[in-house]
Amino acid sequence: MNLNEFKETLSKLIGSYDTFILTTHENSDADGVGAEYAIYLYLEMFGKNVRMINNDKPSSECEFFHIGNKVHTRIETLDTNDIVFMLDFNEINRVGKRLIPLFTSGNQIVRIDHHKKPETMSNCISYIDDTASSTCELVFNIIEDELSHFPEEVQKQIALALYSGIIFDTNNFANKNVSPRTFEVCAQLNAYGADNHLAYKKLFENRKTKELQLLGLTLSSIEEFYDGKVVLYFTTQKMLEESELPIEATEGFSKDVKPTNGREVVVYIRETGKNTYRVSLRSDHRDVQKIAEHFDGGGHILASGFRAKMKLTDLKSELLSLLK
Ligand SMILES: [Mn+2]
């Protein structure tokens, strides 16, 4: 659906329904949560009853949106008249097991996303643009006209949430997914009061000393393969115990080793439990999405991820043979 058709259909839904549920993918990030919060505030302006339900509480880096206690992690009630927003993901499985009923109960779905290969879904209107930097950029396109009529304080909150999502997904405008439109949107968000310095500090300069120590342990595990074209590093449960930190402290570690200087693929492995791993793959030109899909994961061509339940040695050798 193109933007205008989508906006028209959405405004009819908003006119006819009262209760809206918003959700994003599991292991939510600033783009998903930013988009969610912006839509939450937007729908509230129309007097709607809105709930945010995610698999996880927003990570500490999203605390500055001040939405922590507004996000539920369980579906308490689900009425057939509830409209469900699916933000920053396009296949049901990515929502987290507990929340799958949101999408299998026959409710009307509204999907806004920038990932490739959207799953075919029924009862669903979609605004998907895989050339957009982020879901937050798409949300701005949707609400742009009405935003100018909102009270200043609401404009400011929405602007900060959307700006934060955009800089998170573009790595503060450094990624290839940035377009002239991204800058136009951000210029407007900044004019609406989004504090770019605050958002940058909260999202990119937020590490506590213990986290830096854990990062040090993690980085010391780097190994090179295939003449350094593939590098692999990991965080083990033992490292977490040593640093007295939960697994969440490793969010973002996958971005600390870049695919540059001859490194074509960067693999970051996190041990989440006994023989269970979360793997993140990054490259600057190789299709790592294909590899993630081999393990039933997904993402983008240059940044993807998956979960695996197997021995670390098997996981490494399977990965390395695919990356040859
Ligand atoms: Mn995103």
List the helices and strands and how they pair.
Elements: H1 3-16, E1 19-24, H2 30-45, E2 49-53, E3 71-72, E4 83-87, H3 101-104, E5 109-113, E6 124-128, H4 135-147, H5 152-170, H6 180-191, H7 196-204, H8 209-219, E7 223-225, E8 230-235, H9 237-243, E9 265-273, E10 276-283, H10 289-294, E11 298-299, E12 303-309, H11 312-322
Parallel strand pairs: 1-2, 1-4, 2-3, 4-5, 5-6, 8-9
Antiparallel strand pairs: 7-8, 9-10, 10-12, 11-12
Helix pairs in contact: 2-4, 2-5, 4-5, 5-6, 5-7, 8-9
The structure holds manganese (II) ion.
Residues 31, 88, 114, 134-135, 169 line the site of manganese (II) ion.
Please provide a written account of the structure.
It is built from eleven helices and twelve strands. By secondary structure, it is an alpha/beta fold. It has two domains: 201 residues, inorganic pyrophosphatase (n-terminal core) (Alpha-Beta Complex), CATH 3.90.1640; 114 residues, Diaminopimelate Epimerase, Chain A, domain 1 (Roll), CATH 3.10.310.30. The strands form two sheets. The protein has a six-stranded parallel β-sheet. A six-stranded mixed β-sheet has the order 7-8-9-10-12-11, sandwiched between helices. Helix 8 runs antiparallel to helix 9. The longest helix is centred in the middle third of the chain and has 19 residues. The radius of gyration is 20 Å and the shape is globular. The site of manganese (II) ion has 6 residues, from loops.
